[in-house]
Amino acid sequence: MDQTALVARAREAFARRVEPALALTEEAGRVAAACHAMAERFHDGGRLVVFGSGEAATDAQHIAVEFVHPVIVGKRALPAFSLTNDVATITGITAVAGAEEVFAHQLRHLATPRDMALGVSATGNCADVLRALETARELGLLTLALVGGDGGAIRAGGVADHVLAARSHDPRVVKETHVTMYHVLWELVHVFFERPGVLTPKVVT
Ligand SMILES: O=C(CO)[C@@H](O)[C@H](O)[C@H](O)[C@H](O)COP(=O)(O)O
């Protein structure tokens, strides 16, 4: 492939990402509603529990660090952790209870009803994420999902209070769009805390 064709290919690859990025503005209302619900849970001492498999496991860790150790200096740290960090726990659960239980089991033993459960699945069909959201709902957590395409079984099953979808079926484009979504989620949650008199996190002792 000559240089010209390569450049054309690169242009086409970038252009394929424009529409999903623009479509994000249509998710603004859902994102704002999710942020208000999250801010209320943080206000009441809730923590953000994040999970996903494969590449989405890295998104779960990225989201957790954004909240608990903000990249923007001076922004308040908010309690968040990922269920994808502890290999001993993950392999132990998987070996005995099966992969589908890997996040649900941790939620049952690490989360409280005040918390929020955020599952990341590019296809919307990741079985361990779906199972975890079902469990989180049973436990009374606020449930949120970052998905792609038509939202798969996660959207169809109605297991999440807030479903934020990237408008693409290409998992790479979905994941790129998710990064933008969760950075905006973080930004708007902080808006609720920075406006005087709106919400100030209660420190639960
Ligand atoms: O992460 C990768 C490849 O790096 C995927 O193969 C990933 O493991 C699988 O898609 C998992 O089933 C995750 O599901 P989803 O997030 O794609 O819905």
Automatic annotation (TrEMBL):
Family annotation (Pfam families): SIS_2 (PF13580)
Stretches assigned to the SIS domain: 38-198
One MF annotation (Gene Ontology) recorded for this entry: carbohydrate derivative binding
Record's keyword annotation contains Cell wall biogenesis/degradation: no
Keyword Nucleotide-binding: no
Single GO BP term: carbohydrate derivative metabolic process
SUPFAM superfamilies: SIS domain
Chain ranges passing through the membrane: none
Keywords annotated in UniProt: Isomerase
Entry superkingdom: Bacteria
EC number(s) per entry: 5.3.1.28
Top EC class, one word: isomerase
Protein name (record): D-sedoheptulose 7-phosphate isomerase
Lineage: Bacteria, Bacillati, Actinomycetota, Actinomycetes, Streptosporangiales
